[in-house]
Write a structure and sequence with these properties.
This protein is α/β, with parallel strands linked by helices. It has a single domain, classed as Formyl transferase, N-terminal domain (Rossmann fold, 3-Layer(aba) Sandwich). It is built from six helices and six strands; from the N terminus they run H-E-H-E-H-E-H-E-H-E-E-H. Helix 5 packs across helix 6. It is globular and about 50 Å long. The chain starts with a helix and ends in a 6-residue tail after the last helix.
Length: about 180
């Protein structure tokens, strides 16, 4: 999220960050965004139906004039209804070379499989987990002494480079809609 916010400050960036939302009211990203003068929204899903929780997020996004949702560190599965309302307007960064290693523990799984490289993928979000069209990928070698943590740190550097660039390209070529 911080990399997207930083990139949005460039004069030639085709997107702006209109809202930073989180399911964790104490998320550090909310403090960072507020410090940058960006509107924030936090709503915990605990104890409420998923549809009610997603309706609150949907309302906040629409009120802020959001056209494209860029998930960054958001670790909840969105319902099919939510994804359908925002079809082709949600992108995500995932720490693997999709379609390999969907879901969690991607770095440990790549190392355990004996892969020679890992990386990250920016993809369009669909109803199926980590299955949307891949927009871009960045690769890093898996070193002989890598742990999941050391590999994750190198992949994160690439995520911070790849995501803002790919989001800028996506919003530039994606048709505008009136919903």
């Amino acid at each position: 999220m911080a990399a997207l916010v930083a990139a949005a400050r460039a004069a030639d960036c085709p997107y702006e960050v209109a809202l930073v939302a989180s399911d964790k009211p104490d998320a550090a990203g909310l403090v960072h965004a507020a410090g940058q003068g960006i509107a924030t929204f936090a709503h915990s899903p605990r104890g409420i139906p998923k549809a009610e929780y997603e309706a609150a997020i949907d309302g906040a996004l629409r009120e802020a004039g959001v056209e494209t949702i860029a998930l960054a560190g958001y670790m909840r599965l969105l319902s099919g209804d939510f994804v359908a309302r925002w079809r082709d307007r949600i992108v995500n960064i995932h720490p693997s070379l999709l379609p390999a290693y969907k879901g969690l523990d991607t770095h440990a799984r790549a190392i355990a499989a004996g892969d020679r490289e890992a990386g990250c993928s920016v993809h369009v979000v669909t109803e199926e987990l980590d299955a949307g069209s891949v927009l871009a990928q960045a690769r890093v070698p898996i070193l002989p002494d890598d742990t999941a943590d050391s590999l994750a740190a190198r992949v994160l550097v690439e995520e911070h480079r790849l995501y803002p660039q790919t989001l800028a390209e996506y919003v530039t070529r994606r048709p505008r809609c009136s919903t």
